[in-house]
Amino acid sequence: MCGRTACSLGADNLRRACAYRDRVGQRRQPEWIRAERYQPSYNKGPQSSGPVLLSRRHLQQDADSSERVLMDMRWGLVPSWFNKDDPSKMQFNTSNCRSDTMLKKSSYKGPLLKGKRCVVLADGFYEWQQHSGGKQPYFIYFPQSKDAMAEGKDGDEEWRGWRLLTMAGIFDCWEPPAGGETLYTYTIITVDASKDVSFIHHRMPAILDGDEAIRKWLDFAEVPTQEAVKLIQPTENVVFHPVSTFVNSVRNNTPECVAPIELGAQKEVKATPTSNAMLSWLKSSQEGSPQKKENDLPRWKSQFIHSPSPKKTSAGLLQQWLGKEAEPAAKKRKVLALSCADGSGYNLLASLPGSPDKALRSTSACRGGVASASDHIHSSRLLFSFPFFFVY
C-alpha cells in the first residue's frame, strides 16, 4: 500500500523536474494549474493535497492529449457519483486502489474507462514494516545519481536534481450537489510488492519508471485503457532506508522525516554522519533561494547518493548512500535542539562533535528575529533560534 509520501520541491522546481519531450521532440515543462495551492511537505498523508500530472485534454477538449499539466489534487478519490453534500462523509478509504480490482469497483472503473489517468509525484513514499516490537518506517524512492543535489539554473535544459518518484494514479471530479467549486481527487494504484521490498510490506505503489511509461499512462486518447493497464507492474528499480518513527505523526514535517537512521540504535536522531548531512542539505537549500514558498520548506536532496548496491537492505547501503565511512562507535557527540523562536524555522535535532561553542561557525537570523543561544535542559545542550546554519 501507500499511505504516506514526501514531496519537498517548491512549485517552480517541481515543474522543472517534470520536463518532458513532446511529439516533435521539443523539451517542455508542464504548465501549473492552481500552483498557489501546492504546499511542499516531507510528510503527506491521505486527505492532504499533492501534485499530479495529467493530460491537458482533461481540462481543454481541443488540446493535444500528449500535452501535460501539473495540478494540485486531494489525496483520496471522491467518485463523481457521490451524492452527499460533504465528501468527508465517505465511509470507505480510497487513498489506494488495488490493481486487481480497479476494473471491477465502480469508484475506479468509471474514471479509468474515461481515461482519467494521472501520475502522482513524490520524492518517495513511506512504508511501515510490522515486527514484534512495533512498526519500523522506511523511505522508498528511485535510485539517485551522485550529482542529485545539483538543481542547476532555470535556463538549464535538463533538470539535474532529485529524480521524482512517479506513481500511477486515477483521478475524478466531484461537483457539490448544492453547487460550488469542482473537487479534484486521486487514488494511487497499488500492486504486489517487488521482491526487494516485500520484507517491508506485501504491497507497493504502481511505479511508472521512465518517460515513455509516463507518456503512455497519461495519453488516454492514443493509448486505450486495456493497453495502459499493462504498465501497472511491480518494479525492482527502487532503493530504501529506515527512518525515525518521528514520521509516524503526519503533523511532523521536517527533514528528520526522511533522514536515514541505523537500525538497532535509538529511534531518535543520533550522532551519525547522516544527521550532519541532512543539516548541510537544509543549509544549502535555504541559501540564495529567491522563492518564498520554497524557503518555507527545506528541500530534500543529496550530494552523496549514487547507484544502489545489490544488497539494498544492508547497513552498508546507508554508508554508500552518504559516501562516507561509518563513524566509530566510540566517538561521542553532543546534541543540539534547533528551532526558530518566531516559528519560521524547523525543529531539528542536530548531532555535532565536540563542545557546542566550537561546533557552529556561522549562524543566521530567523525571518522574524535575531539568532540567539541560551542554555536548554542540560549544560551539554543549547537552544538556538535560527532556521539554518553550517557545520564544519
TrEMBL record:
Q: Which GO terms describe its biological process?
A: protein-DNA covalent cross-linking repair; proteolysis
- What EC number(s) does its UniProt record assign? 3.4.-.-
Q: Does the keyword Protease apply?
A: yes
Keywords noted in UniProt: Covalent protein-DNA linkage, DNA damage, DNA-binding, Hydrolase, Lyase, Protease
- Gene3D superfamilies, per database record: SOS response associated peptidase-like (3.90.1680.10)
One example GO MF annotation: lyase activity
- Source species, domain of life: Eukaryota
Pfam families from the UniProt entry: SRAP (PF02586)
Class of this enzyme: hydrolase
**Entry similarity comment:** Belongs to the SOS response-associated peptidase family.
Please give the function described in this protein's UniProt entry.
Sensor of abasic sites in single-stranded DNA (ssDNA) required to preserve genome integrity by promoting error-free repair of abasic sites. Acts as an enzyme that recognizes and binds abasic sites in ssDNA at replication forks and chemically modifies the lesion by forming a covalent cross-link with DNA: forms a stable thiazolidine linkage between a ring-opened abasic site and the alpha-amino and sulfhydryl substituents of its N-terminal catalytic cysteine residue. The HMCES DNA-protein cross-link is then either reversed or degraded.
This chain belongs to the protein called: Abasic site processing protein HMCES
The species this protein was found in: Patagioenas fasciata monilis
By which gene is this protein encoded? HMCES
